[in-house]
Structures are given as structure tokens and as C-alpha cells.
Amino acid sequence: MTSWSPSAVTGILLLVLSCTGFAALCAVHGLPMADALVYRAEGAAVVDGRDLYGFTVTRWELPATYPPFAALLFVPTTWLPLAALKGAFLAGNVAFLVLLLHLSCRLAGLPSRAAPLCAAAACALWLEPVFQTVLFGQINLALACLVLWDLTRPPGSVGKGFAVGVAAGIKLTPAFFIAYLLVTGRVREAATAVVAFAGTVLLGALVLPAASVEFWTRRVFETGRVGKAWIVDNQSLQGLAARVLHVPEPGLAWTLPAVVVAAMGLWAARRAGAGARGLLVAAGAALLVSPISWSHHWVWCVPLIVVLVGEGSPRLAVVVAVVFTARTLWLVPHEGSADLHLAWWQQGLAAPYAVLGVGLLASASLLRSPQPRPFPNRGLRPRAPGLVAASRLVLKRRTD
Fold this sequence. Notes:
With about 400 residues, the chain is an all-alpha fold. Helix content is about 60%, strand content about 0%.
């Protein structure tokens, strides 16, 4: 008979209580999981042979925005009743959160035990990017796990880089990690990622030829289709520039800084090497230069916090955790076009993740980097009457 230590029982109970609180909150306000409904509609479009990019779903009229390959992966979502699908996304995202914490410990060189992992997951569930990911039924945690699992495998592992390419084939932003592999001298892994990415494109083209032509020649360039770039939901450089300049389309005012940040990020990642710091610098740069990085895309805050703890910087880890928990972006005026008329002193509150990302990127570029540690082997909205209600407003504002 298996015996449970008191610490393990405590960790599991904390996670259960945290999930119960989350579920109760959703039960009271409703669990939208709007993105999960989009994925389901994409899978249904594949099954029924309908136009993949010609529909919108939910009352927020959300369209499909991912490559055709992603739609193929979403076909199984059509096999479940809606209530079961939401339950599967909820349980799956909590499991991915625990896995992400485990992989983050591996990245940071910290021991990974069940009790601390469950306790950490109980707390991490309330980080704003994680909370929104679970609430919307997003796949951010799954993609972060895919990339982190691949890049923390020992050098020379069979097929290393393959999962990065697959992640890029599902959602384009992880393609930045291919450039990261190149600048850190891992040409073979970068080539594997490119081949895997090309494979996802080819598979999508074979199964969905018309949708593939439409996406890769037209939809991929329509960033406005994803949502309005100037709202506080967008924590990329483009969103920051638009709000600071009070214009919906900042143009060169964001593209030129984005090029600089991308170059600086890759240089800092190369300088940091193949360890944890270089990988997180690349993740931060990718989120900053992406035209749209919704707040829930910033789930990379989880490995960042863990790595800071592993590097012996617990106070900085607490500061980062506070930034990603405080939800200051929802405290500034953000109804209608109010995002474009914020006072100067509100800009930092409206863009906490972008400001933090730029700051950490600058420090990684200017400060001396520690010797990177090799990865261990495997054996070893109203202004918030409520979190769920605010999330509904997030969805509405993206498409109004």
C-alpha cells in the first residue's frame, strides 16, 4: 500500500483547493472558454469540408487564426460534448501547468518533487497569464511545455528541435526559437526544427490545400484579424507603441524598435549561451516583437520565476510574480477606445509585461551573464467587478 508523506498530501490539497476556487468562480460567472470553441469550430470545418477561414464563432465573433495544421490537430475536439470539452481543457491545462513547472525546475537545475510542484501550481494558477489561458481554453501552456521539453533535453538527443518546429507549425511565434538555436550554434537542432515546421506546412497543404493557400498568402499577414493591437490586452511592443503614441497603427514607430529588440534579444541569447537565461531571453524577445501578444501568451513567466529562484534571486522572483499577478493592465481605463487616451503615468500600468520584458532584456544585454549550466539528463474588464467578467470584456474588445 502506497503511503503519502504529509508534504505530498499538503501540496495536493493546496492544488485541489486552488482548482476548486477557480471552478467555483467560473460556476458563478460562467466559463466562456471562447478559444476552445474556436478550436472546436476549426476541427468541425475540417471534418465537414467547410471554409476554415470563413466563419466566426461565439458572441464575440472570433475567427480562426492559426495555420491549417493546427486545425487538423483540433479535429478530436469535435468528438466531445461541449461540457466535456470544457472539462477536458480545464483538467488538461492544470496538468500542463504542473508539467511546465516540472520542466522549469529542470531548466533551473532544481529538484522536482510532487509536493512542491502541486503547491507551486496552486499558486501559479492565479498568475494572470495562466488564469486567462485556463479561462479561455487556450493552448499556451501546452506550447510552452512542447518547446521547453525539447530545448531542455540533453545535447545530441534524437530529434532535438523537432518539437520546436511542430510548435511553430501550430502557432507561429515559437519560430523565434529556431533563430535562437542558430545564434547559439546549434545548427543541427535548428535544421531539425525547420524540417519539422516545413512538415507541418506540407501536411496542412496536402489535407487542406485551399485553406493553406489562403493562410500562407493572405491570412498570415492580416494581424488585425487576430484583434485590435492597441488595446491593453496586447502586451507586445506594438501595443505599447500604439498606446503611448495614441494611434491605432503605430507603423514604423513599432516595427523599427521591434527589429532592434529582436536583434538585441538574439545577441543577448547568444551571449547568455545555451542555458536557462538564453532560452528565457529568446522567449521574452519573441513575445515583445510579435505583432500581438495577448496577456495570456506570457505564460513564460512561470519558468522565469522558477529560474530566478534557482539562480538565488528570490526577491526578484517575488517582484516578477507580483507583476504577473497584480493585473494592473485591467485597472486603467480600457472601455471603448480609452486605451488610446491614457495619461503618461498610466502607460506603465497598461503595459506591465512589455515594460518588464524590455527591462529584463536590457539587463541581459548589459550585465555579465553567468556561466550557463548544461541541462540535466532526464533521469536525474469592467475595472474588475470579477476576473471572469473582465475576461469576457477582453474577448468583446478584441473584435468590436
